[in-house]
Amino acid sequence: MPTLTAITQRTDVVVEIGGLPIRLRCEDPAFIRLLINRYAGYISSSIEAGFDFEIELAPPDTKCGDEDVQVKWDTDRWLMTRGDFRAEWNPSTLRGRVRQTINPYSLDSVLRIVHTLLLARKGGFLVHASSAICDGRAFLFSGISGAGKTTIARLAPPDAALLTDEISYVIPQDGRYFAVGTPFFGELARVGENLRAPIDCVYLLAKGPKNKIEPIVGADAVRGLLGNILFFARDPEFVKLVFDAAFDFASRVPVRRLTFVPDMRVWELIV
Amino acid sequence: MSVKPYLARSPAIAARVLGDETMVMSGINSTLFTLDKVATIIWESADGTTPLEEIVKKKVCARYDVSLEVALKDAELLVEQLAEHGLLLLSDQPIAQSSSSPKVNP
Q1: Which chain A residues touch B16 with a CB distance below 8 Å?
Q2: Is the CB of A222 less than 8 angstroms away from the CB of B11?
Q3: What's the ipTM?
Q4: Nearest chain A residue (CA) to B24
Q5: Which of A168, A181, A226, A254 is within CB 3.0–4.6 Å of A129 for a Cys-Cys bond?
Q6: pTM value > 0.80
Q7: What residue spans of A123-235 are helical by DSSP H?
Q8: B75 sits in which H/E element
Q9: Cβ of B61: how many Cβ atoms within 10 Å?
């Protein structure tokens, strides 16, 4: 019996991170397929989206500069630029545009920026941290590059749900702070599980000769946290929102220093 | 006195006092600064209308065993540094709170 298989040439996809659906449109179905693969686990089946982004693909031979990311408010929109992309987003019209070459990394950065801007209004933030859920509790492991975020994630017990090994998504809800899974990964190259749980503790990572946990309080806790929070936007109002969120977070969630040797025994101390 | 005498906190910052310290973050580049106890006194007194020398005399020298000359020299250095980072506005004239724009700071 002859069969007919329809291959849908989709030109849009809705990516939902932290409960926020963003529609990504592109005339190139191959790029949409790339995004569906990249954001597996975070693709929404809903046709509703909070924001729409039109993606314009530059020719593959387009030269990309090495400029660092810049985010600034201009009249009625956020302008986001880096060597490999130019993007803008108007929160009033709920629409944005991205111009980039065919790669998943540029859009990844745009999404991170957009989520930091949106989270700031809600009292949340993105932070350089791996995170995992154990027994219904989320644990964050924060530090700069090389501090051990991915190492801790790799050592997690089998029953732990890994939310990310790179960028943790923190959002307040009902007087508590929750960690939410993200597709933003680091060296582990694995998309986090699309789950959420109340944050039990934040560990600031340090490597040492033996496993040890020490409480960090007051200004040291806030300082340690602020040092790892993502601040993309050079905008005083945005900075104030995130600064205040960090203080509120540190007053509600224990911050501790985790000095560890890279073997699985460290998790016995954590949970 | 070498620095401009009137000082006001920039509106383009985020700041909180925690214990004896003040944490100040630049709203322009999100750099974080920590002020110690004495620096916090000066920071909190930077109302745009009280000259630095008066702040040092009444709020620093009155609490600590230090001469006005030494304390003022240190305070001038501090406010210059804070102004360089855009955290404080300095002026030859009193700075009205409503007109505390970064343009005041050279």
Answers
A1: 222, 243-244, 247
A2: no
A3: 0.84
A4: A243
A5: A168
A6: yes
A7: 149-154, 218-226
A8: helix B68-84
A9: 17
